Amino acid sequence: MATIYCTATSLDGYIADDEESLSWLFATPAHDKDPGGRYGDGDSLDFDQFLPTVGAVVCGANTYACVHRELTHDGQDFAWPYEQPSWIITHRDLDLPDGVRAHAGDVREVQAAATEAADGKDVWIVGGGDLAGQFADAGLLDKVWVHQTPVVLGAGAPLLPRRLRLRRERVERDGQFTAMLFEVVGPEPRRAGEVDGAAGVYAEG
């Protein structure tokens, strides 16, 4: 069981553009629509392979709003796309679908509830970046899994606005996406020459 921040990002590190749109993401072909297909470690970083390993979902209010907009822009009724127990981190009074709960407290509290609900499976942090950062601040974020998209946005919502040292575990091509899985090592020190526990672990390889 792990807590994983899995998301798509632009080449310049944004998970939504400056109009909070994901149109650039949905315009990017994955392996099933790209002649290049995939290479790398089999299907291990295929998003379709990831979902069955997820036992609980945690999502920020802004990310929830983006998902809501994208799924209803053509006039369709909104349906939360995940069947797993889900939490939206928000102080707003949102009209949430069945099976989706609001949480306004510390991320440690929702982590405990999500871990119990996941029953041995992974907890997926959908986004946004600051929510993933709160999990990292609390020492609760285990992995970062990004699907890097060949587009530059120039501005928008940042991927993960924290100083963190990561260790790359895998890199694969998924159509036009570059899928990368990282282990979270810990905070990245600021002062030149400073070596803390996280940097020492990284140096040991």
What would you note in describing this structure?
Helix content is 24%, strand content 33%. The chain has 205 residues and is an alpha/beta fold. A hairpin with a 2-residue loop joins β10 and β11. It is globular and about 50 Å long.
Instruction: Give the SSE order as H and E letters.
Output: EEHEHEHEEHEHEEEEH
Count of discrete alpha- or pi-helical segments spanning 4 or more residues: 6
What does the average pLDDT come to? 89
Roughly how much helix do the residues carry, as a percent range? 10-25%
Strand sequence of the main sheet, in spatial order? 3-10-11-8-1-7-4-5-6
The radius of gyration is: 17 Å
Strand % is 25-35%
In the predicted model, the low-confidence regions spanning at least 5 consecutive residues are: none
**Termini Cα gap:** 23 Å
Would you report the number of β strands? 11
- The rough form would be described as globular
The major β-sheet equals: 9 strands, mixed
Class by SSE composition: alpha/beta
Topology overview:
Layout (H helix, E strand, L loop, with lengths): L2 E8 L3 E4 L5 H4 L11 E2 L7 H4 L3 E7 H12 L13 E4 L10 E4 L3 H12 L3 E6 L1 H9 L5 E7 L6 E3 L5 E11 L2 E11 L9 H8 L1
Short description:
By secondary structure, this protein is of the alpha/beta class. Helices cover 24% and strands 33% of the residues. It has helices at 23-26, 47-50, 61-72, 107-118, 129-137, 197-204, and strands spanning 3-10, 14-17, 38-39, 54-60, 86-89, 100-103, 122-127, 143-149, 156-158, 164-174, 177-187.
Provide key terms for this protein.
205 residues; alpha/beta; two-stranded antiparallel ribbon; 6 helices; 11 strands
